[in-house]
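Two folds, back to back.
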Amino acid sequence: MQGFSVKATGSITNTPETGSIMQAAEDVTVVRGILGRRTRVQAGGDLRAQFTQEARVEAGGDFTAGNHVYRALLHAAGKVLVLKGGGSRGRGILGGEVWGQEGVEVYQLGSPNGVAGAVVAGLEPWQAKQLDRLKTSAGTCEEHIQIELRRFNLTRIDLGQIRNIVAAATGPHRTVLIHQTHQLGQLVQLYKKLQGEQQTLEGRIRTTVKGV
């Protein structure tokens, strides 16, 4: 019922009322639908429901909707399947955020009303966030590298030219250039590290997608 929380070490077959929480270590079968922003349903295995609206849903296996998914936050470690259902929302994913690590099968995405949403297949939410973080950090690092290069009147890294510029400088200016060279070196090392992490993560994602 509303406001109640149910946890099971096995499977659950029931319909949660709006605002309730339902967690099962194995499968969850929702007789009708999952409805409400404060409603939470989590299954360690597969999860089936007639529909999901504005709820938070997580499945350790596949998630199957008999009709539609509407403005829900849905994550499945397996596939997200939206079957043929009746009504204007039947067979559709409209709005919200839907993640299917092993794929998403749906007839209709979005709506003529322009309900904003995101559908992602092939990677976990944390992987998407980490990729965004790495790309943003690498972009910022690249901008700082260009700033340091402009101090040497260069547009690209040329170690020979940088050494010659530092060697030709004298007094305090030489000290400043040596410091800037050290900063540039640190930025280049950081940029290579970020690129390496990004390539490693993208490689893992590609391996996961190929295995599906």
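---
second:
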Amino acid sequence: MKKYYITTPLYYVNYKPHIGHAYTTLAADILKRHLKAEGRDVFFQTGTDEHGINIERTAREHSKTPKQWSDEIVVEFKDMWKTLHIDYDYFIRTTDEYHEKQVQLVFEKLIKSGDIYKGNYEGIYCSSCENFYDESELVDGKCPIHKKEVERVNEETYFFKLSAYQDRLLNHYKENPEFLSPSYRANEIIRFVEMGLKDISVSRTRVKWGISVLSDPNHTVYVWFDALLNYITGAGYDVHNPDNEKFKSLWPCDVHLIGKEIFRFHAVIWPAMLMALGLPLPKKVYAHGWWTVNGEKMSKSRGNIINPVDVVREYGLDTFRYFIFREVPFGQDGDFSTDMLKTKYNSDLANGLGNLFSRTVNMVRKYMDNIMPDKPKDSEIFSKITLMQKDIYKNIEEMQFSSALDLIWKAVSILNKEIDDKKPWEMAKKDIEGLKKFLNEMVWCLRLIARWIYPFMPDTSAKMNMYLAIGNTADKTVESQKLAPLFPKKN
């Protein structure tokens, strides 16, 4: 059976990782954890893009070689993924020997098929995003993404016949409406392709830090052409043996998760490259929005780049994971505010889930001696909560993470209200059997919630399960431990 294959983009190593990198990677991690918990075999790939003129310049500024600089930044990424409990399967680097070799072979294959040909490029180039632009795409004469001055380039180059795939791309979008996701971003891509595609430059002669063209070593493969191929090289694609078992078990990719600024590369150039290679296209390319900080765009010059490690240090890992996916629908732009983070922490986590959990477990300890019967039968509240699971799972699988969390916290609110309405502390005085039945229902509902939050908040889920796996064979040392709050309130 084919594995479910999830990817993040390759992160450019010109700077240390920040919240934008963490956002995409955590989204992939959430999806993987959920699918694995449901019994699916999942392969999750992330990695780094280490070639190009920007890396040359940055390394030179730090008195290092490009490879030395890349090696150091890769450690930063891997350390952050460890801190954030990112459960990836493979970390690919564009400097990996296997990747570089396959990029060269793909380039030669497409030269041979006529999809890549030599010519001369004269036009506009932005070195910050390593992208070529038409005059009409500039904003006030500057790069539309970085708002920086562009450069005029005139050099010999190899072109990829992107124009030859215009009709096939439009047909694919029409026949596979989920390919361009979320749906409200699709028209931007469709309109761009309908306006007419031009062949694109896929090599440079002035950039030396990159993968050389085998048959013409004066040329270096364009950094985007190189980087996009990671999705198949990491999956085991081999030009000489494209039907190998590893590649067949993974490709086509089920979802590429990316930021909206690189949607066009993934939704136009990448599928055209795959068509040229005779390979199936990914099932979905999902472009999410950007994060701002207190209403301002993140930038090194403003000094407002959010380092997730700092947030985790103050509020805990699961709080960070929860906040960035509850606060903003995945796909849209979001604004990071420490004031809002603190508010959500106290309201949703400390007063919501944390309060529900501590009240329930402490009453079980007090009134039931930690002994729980089987799953409740004919329980109205347990049935009501259970019915929510289908929509929660559907939302996660469609990457509507905030909607899934909204439903989970609706269940938390329902259960807190049940405790307030039933007043179990009063039931203890006059209806002990009714109290035991009620607490049994509450524990089983909390077990459901622990499963539902697992992809988002794995540590909290594990802690809840430790106390909710209650029975007469429970470890007495665990039972006797004082129950610490899941989320101590912040003043």
